[in-house]
Amino acid sequence: MESITLTEPSLKEGCVATDGYREISTSKVIRSIEAAVEIIARLLVIIATYQLFKQLGTVFFGEQYNNDMLYSIVILPTLYIFQGAHIVLAPYFVKVNICEDNIKARTGILTYRHDQLGFKTVENIELVSTLGGRVFGYTTIFLYAYGSWVRIPFVKDSQALKKEIEFNIKKAKST
Predict the structure, then answer these.
(1) What single DSSP character describes residue 101?
(2) Do 25 and 12 contact (CB within 8 A), yes or no?
(3) What pLDDT is stored for residue 18 in this prediction?
């Protein structure tokens, strides 16, 4: 049987140790700004669509054209966009903690979601990054295990955390 030599990754700066867990730094301000820009862009597309159909209606129907139907068509997508507006505040309600045998993630504003996953059961690590995440250096990490998964959103320095998680997985599975 081969012996496995593991070199522990160095602790990241900005991580606070409590009860054996370290808090992982997440992007808050930048992610909130990105979410707000996304909402504004969607609203601008609705406004542009409204203006386009208003002009087309005037061209094709002239004086007989009535905007009432167009208002009702535009209001539903607008309400749908505002329904998801909580994503602007969501980064401020993310807390991620890691220790040598598991990771915890707590998310949510009104309804909290508290996920915990032991490294011994992790089968796959996935990193998902938005355009803003690539530019400003944050990523969402998904850890998959049989019958379970944990989403770790808006992680700063995700490559270092991924290496630490991989180290902890190898360590947990070798014992």
Answers:
(1) S
(2) yes
(3) 56
